[in-house]
Amino acid sequence: MRAVGYFRKQKTTEWSSVDNSFELDFSEYCEINFHQNVGVYVDEFGSKSEYKQLLTFLRDSNSEYLVVIPDAPHLGSDLEKLTRSLLEIASTGSTSVCMSDNAPDPVQNGFHTLGVKGVSKTRSDRVKESMRIKAAQGKPLGRPPYGYRINEDGDLTVVTEQATVVELMYRLYTKDQIGFRLIAQHLNDRGITTRKSKPWNVVTVRDVLRNIAYTGTYTRFGLRKSKVHEAIIAPEIFKSAQDITKSRRPIGRVSNSQPFLLSGLVFCANCGNKMMGVTRKQKWMRKDNRRSFGTYRYYQCQSRQNQGTCSYVTWRASMLESTVIGRLFEYVTAAREGSDSKDADLKTKNHRVKEMKKERVKTAERRLMSALRRVANAEIPLDLMSEYVKNLDVARKLSNRSRADKSPKTYQKMDQIESLKYEDKRVLLEENIKDITVHKERVEVSF
Question: I want to staple 103 with a disulfide (CB 3.0 to 4.6 A). Which of 109, 132, 272, 386 is the partner?
Fold first, then answer.
């Protein structure tokens, strides 16, 4: 495979910053692993110019490369920055790897070399070393996959009842060609729950159908061993499932879909779960044999969308958003008459909104770290991290926008809401609306 090296010099004696030892190490790495040495990009301290040139080279080449780094800190000074760099490289179709024998996976390497905020580095090193010893023996670490349990000897053994469910999921996916959502609905309709007695959803089904552990293969800390424990799924069936997933994933298409204005504020009146924005594209042939295309956006209950457990209540996005904006306009108009008497209420509300935004940022940060741990454990692929990063960026942007906003008062903004940008509309909604409850034919807005 064609490999390109990247090295970021740092002002520290621990890293090579004055000689060409990295170039020599990279050259040796390519020879040992039979990679084609394409070249090296080296950034001076505090600069990212070579990194930007590397990204440009990867994008323009339209080919897959292996980006080799000494260890994770060369791509980011903390786990969040590392994740962003890895996603940038992955977006070009290339992959990243560390030259570390103990932790070649960049995410696993990042947890080891960068550590986690609030966790002792010394203690973390001891824990990691203990985990490596177990990994070298093929011993499971953490919670076993659905369908297995850890016996007295610390090995994975099959749980027969759960293994039957796993086999059913793979059969529905590979033979019956049923998607993640319909598989979740099928299991929920039959009263089959997860190990925690919860309904199945798109994410939990997808995780099962992507986990190579079901073939008896062990992967951790860059190690990969086959036939370590009893397999539930044959390797050829697992490969078929991955091929189907890959064939259904859009390739080379960048999503430019607009965010949904009411995301996170809308709840289903039937089950109480949040409603999510969904975009559907349809194609059809006209009578004159011309092709037509249509894009439809609407809000649908997450229980229905991800689990198939709720009634089919759906609202067109344009209709629901205009209805809510109309209710907000009525609320703000009524508040104008007694604005002086409502000053105290507005201060309380503004304080509540600021605290809510801070908590959303913290929640987005926690979710990103939790998902990154799952990537390090090979439970989910790296590309899913883009959604967590995007959610964190939106939470931070809305929080900063709210505090720094110098636009007119709420009622003045309301008069020009149709011309406001998405971020301004979103701030206006969050400052005034607690939640929105959607019934089949009506909407309740709480202020």
Answer: 109
For residue 18, the model assigns a pLDDT of 43
Residue 223 in 3-state DSSP? strand
pLDDT in tens, 339-363: 544 555 556 666 666 777 788 788 8
Rounded Cα distance between 102 and 110, Å, is 12
Q: Is 155 exposed, middle or buried (0-12, 13-18, 19+ CB in 10 A)?
A: middle
Mean pLDDT of 218-223: 62
Quick one: which H or E segment has residue 261? none
User: How far is the CA of 37 from the CAs of 2, 31, 114, in angstroms?
Assistant: 6, 8, 28
d(CA 409, CA 432): 12
Q: Exposed, middle or buried, 358 (CB in 10 Å: 0-12/13-18/19+)?
A: middle
Structure tokens at 71: 């260890």
Domain 148-248 CATH superfamily: Putative Large Serine Recombinase; Chain B, Domain 2 (3.90.1750.20)
Between strands 314-316 and 291-301, the pairing is: antiparallel
Task: Please return the burial class of 274, using the count of CB atoms within 10 Å of its CB with bins 0-12, 13-18 and 19+.
Answer: middle
Q: Which fold has domain 2-115?
A: Rossmann fold (3.40.50)
Average pLDDT over residues 226-230: 85
> Does this model's pTM top 0.85?
no
- The domain ranges of the chain are 2-115, 148-248, 266-316, 317-446
Angstrom distance (rounded) from CA 139 to CA 343: 62
pLDDT of residue 411: 55
Are 201 and 306 within 8 A, CB to CB?
A: yes
Quick one: pLDDT at residue 215? 92
Rounded CA Rg of the chain: 26
- The DSSP 8-state label assigned to residue 447 in this structure reads -
Handedness of CA 409, 410, 416, 417 (dihedral sign): positive
**What residue ranges in 61-152 does DSSP mark as E strands?**
66-69, 95-98, 148-150
Give the total residue count for the chain.
447
* Phi, psi angle pair for 293, to nearest 5°: -130, 145
